[in-house]
Design goal:
The protein has 128 residues and is an all-alpha fold. The protein has one domain. 77% of the residues lie in helices and 0% in strands. It is elongated.
Length: 128
């Protein structure tokens, strides 16, 4: 299981998700929706690590996690707009707000690794 590169990507995503959730929870005024989305993403990433025998489902879970992370940014922008009285308000995102973007990139790389494994298995099935 750990010899596959996509598992390493998923583990790094999981660690970054926990770090991001920690910083969100220690922030002064954080919306609960951001923490909820990151928590759901973390649970799905952990589940995705153990779905290594079901590659099609693993790819779908990766895609859903990427969609959730895009939704995280939508909620962040909405929160900044509401709290800052428009787009020129006083709200400044924290440095940890870049973590979901890194997670999305790593999830995409994991998706490509899973797809590569699936193509390899299908090509070996054709040879039999």
């Amino acid at each position: 299981m750990l010899q596959r590169i996509q598992t390493v990507y998923l583990l790094i995503c999981l660690v970054l998700t926990v770090v991001c959730m920690y910083f969100e929870c220690t922030a002064e005024n954080h919306p609960w929706a951001l923490t909820t989305i990151m928590g759901l993403t973390g649970v799905l990433e952990l589940l995705d690590i153990f779905l290594f025998r079901q590659r099609a489902l693993q790819m779908r879970v990766c895609t859903f996690c990427i969609i959730l992370l895009v939704g995280w940014y939508v909620v962040l922008v909405a929160f900044a707009y509401i709290q800052g009285d428009g787009l020129v308000g006083a709200y400044r995102p924290k440095p940890w707000a870049a973590i979901p973007a890194v997670n999305a990139i790593l999830l995409y790389l994991a998706f490509r690794g899973i797809l590569h494994d699936e193509m390899l298995v299908r090509s070996l099935d054709r040879l039999r």
